Structures are given as structure tokens and as C-alpha cells.
From TrEMBL:
<dbReference type="InterPro" id="IPR000014">
    <property type="entry name" value="PAS"/>
</dbReference>
<protein>
    <recommendedName>
        <fullName>Photoactive yellow protein</fullName>
    </recommendedName>
</protein>
<dbReference type="InterPro" id="IPR035965">
    <property type="entry name" value="PAS-like_dom_sf"/>
</dbReference>
């Protein structure tokens, strides 16, 4: 795990507003996964990094309901329920991805704000 304290677009530093404004090339070049969700949980943003590391094409993920179709292992109180219950959210949790892959330890950063058109899940493999 790299220290990103000096990088304004680093996993622990990037803001919700910055995520909303990132151009696709910059978003795709970041070393962590970015999943942007509509208010009702449908995938609108899926960066190249997450596509490559998860082994799922962007075409197969964009437009799907993230928690019920793409990432069922996150459809629980630790991840999906936070988006449902909280009006604003900036929470980092240790997690283990288990769907479609061997157990993979990650850090998840869950971001939600009333001024943003999307909720975000950032995924940093450990």
C-alpha cells in the first residue's frame, strides 16, 4: 500500500467534487478502482484500473445495478447499507472482495454527498 498523503488525487485525499470533475483519461490513470453510482445504485463510472483488476469489462458493468448484479459481495450492511442510510458519507473500511475471484483484501472508500450527482466507491488493493 503506497502513501498518497502528498497526492491530491490519491486514494485517501481525493474529494467527491474532484471525482465528479475528473476527465476520463485522468480517472483511468489512477492506481485504484473508481466506481461511480447513480442515486439508485446503477454504475455510471467504472475506471480502467477497476476493470483490469476485477477482470470485468466496462461495457459489461456500466448500466448494471452494482450491488445486486456486479458486486454482490458488497450488498451488505458494511457497504451498500451505508449508501442507503447516510445522506453524506466519507468512510474508509478494510474489506475482502470474494465474488468472481479468490479472496482479495482491499480498502474501500465510500463517498456520498448531497451536492454530487454520484456516489463513489474507491477500491485500493492491498
Amino acid at each position: 500500500m503506497s502513501n498518497d498523503d502528498d497526492n491530491p488525487l490519491g486514494f485517501s485525499q481525493v474529494s467527491l467534487m474532484e471525482l465528479d470533475c475528473l476527465d476520463p483519461a485522468t480517472r483511468n490513470a489512477l492506481p485504484y478502482g473508481i466506481v461511480g453510482l447513480s442515486a439508485d445504485g446503477f454504475v455510471e463510472v467504472y475506471n480502467d484500473t477497476e476493470s483490469r483488476l476485477a477482470g470485468l469489462s466496462q461495457d459489461s458493468v456500466i448500466g448494471t445495478h452494482y450491488f445486486s448484479t456486479t458486486a454482490q459481495c458488497m450488498n451488505n450492511f458494511m457497504v451498500a447499507q451505508h449508501f442507503e442510510d447516510e445522506a453524506t458519507l466519507d468512510l474508509t473500511i478494510d474489506y475482502v472482495l470474494t465474488l468472481r475471484m479468490r479472496p482479495t483484501p482491499v480498502r474501500l472508500r465510500l463517498l456520498k454527498g448531497s451536492g454530487s450527482p454520484r456516489d463513489y466507491i474507491l477500491i485500493q488493493r492491498l
